[in-house]
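Listing S7. Sequence submitted for prediction.
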Amino acid sequence: MQLVSLAQAGHAVTSDSLNAEVDFETLQLPTMEGLDGLLAKKKRVAKWAPDRNGSLMLSSGANWFSSSKSAKKVSSNYVTSIIDGLKKLYVKKLKPLEVTYHFSDFVSPLLANSDFDAKPMVMLLGQYSTGKTTFIKHLLRTSYPGAHIGPEPTTDRFVVVMNGPDERSVPGNTIAVQADMPFSGLTTFGTSFLSKFECSQMPHPLLENITIVDTPGVLSGEKQRTQRSYDFTGVTSWFAAKCDLILLLFDPHKLDISDEFKRVIASLQGHDDKIRVVLNKADQVDTQQLMRVYGALMWSLGKVLNTPEVTRVYIGSFNDRPINEAPTGPVGKELFEKEQDDLLSDLKNIPKKACDRRINEFVKRARAAKIHAYIISHLKKEMPAMMGKAKKQKRLIDNLEDEFVKIQKEHHLPAGDFPNVEHFREVLSGYSIDKFEKLKPKLIQAVDDMLGYDIPELLKNFGNPYD
């Protein structure tokens, strides 16, 4: 506006105009000649406009300020990108369903704008001394603030490595309350976890596109008996839902999968497409041993992952040192280099796939929220009107598997989309089922419309921003 005022006052408008010594206090405000007439003309045109058949109908301009209750579809004219559209769809159509049926308490916390705007994340998981922190150092070509590397369990906390103006470490309690950070949901794990969580910021070109999550080494043997002060499995599950890629790192000298590691891998259920298995430090064994180690690892993973498909395992040595050719020879070196290139190309493609992943997670969440609504409303319907509520609630919780089957048959839902029975039972025991809401078809219909019409329309109007 100052530039417009300068131009109307007769000054030459250049790149240095605002830096010149101009008395802005005496400068007149810019005049907008003809604006009132133009607005009045547009208002008359916008009020009624003929449609394709020649009949008169209200144009989209007249509906701009109409109430949200009367609007049935979220028009793509009001959004500027896919992410912007998902935010609006979430607030208008999905969030009301989640709030009504306590979705945040049972499945996942409510989403904030920062969850949509966050950069793609990569999480590294593995037992201690499998080279997680060294892997990050290898990717960044430098160490991040607060990194500790050693043969013993050195990383004792969850560290989020992000891009920032300078090198510094920010405590977990501070990060969890920042509105522009996607970590507010971690407050549900309490102060005991937040004291073991920190954000490491540093300026780096790679971190401008992705965020890396370093995790404490999964414990094995006697160390498992020293219980952590927070729900480690729950935290990894929370991060898994947010991440775009999960790297499971193994050491050829420590192939045993401990009980805690089994629980962690089980918590990744539903995110199988994100998991990549990495056999790190592979240049420390010769070719014959490597063949046996690879076979043993595949056998162990087959028992834990419970999937008929063969998991892709990347073999290599991800550290700053050159590959040790002595044990495996030139053939091993060539193999490791090809495997490392494949894994690095996977990492490079993350930003390109981030938008598709965001939509995928959003649709997955919408379906989970629908099924959750059916479960909650069904349990409410089964409760008696007057007497015997406590007994009926206990019976419903004890026979939750049977109730799930009933809901599945009644609404023709896939069994694989239902939540974990034990976890659901544990959370449900803290609620009074009688206080739940009955099924509200309008809320379900809004989510169905979103999945059937709004999201396809959004994808049609906007391309991938990373292409």
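Caption to Listing S7: primary sequence and predicted structure tokens for the chain studied. The chain is about 45% helix and 10% strand. Residues 133 and 149 are 7 Å apart (CA to CA).
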